[in-house]
Amino acid sequence: MVSLARKLIATRNPIPTPRTYEVGNLEPLQPLVPFSWLQETKLLESHLVSLLDNCSCLIQIKQVHAHVIRKGIDQCCYVLAKLLRMLTKINVPMDPYPRLVFHQVEYRNPFLWTALIRGYSIQGPLKEAVRLYNAMRRESISPVSFTLTALLKGCSDELELHLGRQIHCQGIKLGGFCKDLFVHNILIDMYVKCGWLGCGRKVFDEMFERDVISWTSLIVAYSKSGDMVAAAELFERFPEKDLVAWTAMVSGFAQNAKPREALEFFHRMQSAGVETDELTLVAVISVCAQLGAAKYANWVRDLAEGYGFGPANHVMVGSALIDMYSKCGIVEEAYKVW
């Protein structure tokens, strides 16, 4: 395999500009940096970031890092933040290599701080991510939205509600995040996972802008909690009902032992022209199993075959069909699927 280092573009070393003097003054003026050198540096930085995107192992990342050092741009936060994100992506422990990269930069920008904070938020310990955030604030560096979302995601994964609420308050205190869609979506996710669905709904209601994730995450949360009335109310308000939202409603009614309502929503979904996927079909099959009638069993089997999700090639559908036929008392058909 051709070494990754050979793919790096060759750049000329910057040509020193002549020293210039003012008339009557023997002190030299500070030479200007040539524009061509700036262009070359920016192109190199962009190329290195692109190379890092394609790295799949630690050796490749270290090759790019070595080139960064050799070219004298080892203080470039833009490139090094990407390097830290890639190290996180391939699960390289934050200590010692990523941390060493971070500490060798003299002037760190918010994105470099965020890259290391995000690494600790994902890998742990979360308290180290918080400690880094506090250190960043002590250096009078303002966080960006990605800083808060990284910390909130860590709180969501570890169910750290108290810490998550503190970060939420910090975002309000700092200002500038009240209209940030990504921050609000992760706040909803955190409150829902921590069992504070009411707070998640309050965040949703106060949002200036909502996307598909905002709507569906709350619909799914209501469905899982058994509050299908609230889920249906929110679903009807959803302006762009997609497959995820429809499936959440069908699955929600199925999980809450309301098979007829689930079938009603599935028929509405078909009438709306929304494509059916494997997860939706599994939910519908479980509904038919609850009804326990042979006519529904045969109907949903034909439906699965018609959509191209036959049990021979789709294990989830096959398992659901076997369960359904067994509950409907049609053991022969269950054996055929098996």
From TrEMBL:
Keywords: Repeat. Signal peptide: none annotated. One of its GO terms (biological process) is RNA modification. It comes from the Eukaryota. One of its GO terms (molecular function) is RNA binding. Pfam families: PPR (PF01535), PPR_2 (PF13041). Gene3D superfamilies: Tetratricopeptide repeat domain. InterPro entries: PPR_At4g14850-like_plant, PPR_rpt, TPR-like_helical_dom_sf. The keyword Protease does not apply. PPR repeats lie at residues 109-143, 180-214, 242-276. PANTHER family: DYW DOMAIN-CONTAINING PROTEIN, PENTATRICOPEPTIDE REPEAT-CONTAINING PROTEIN. This is Pentatricopeptide repeat-containing protein. It comes from Anisodus acutangulus.
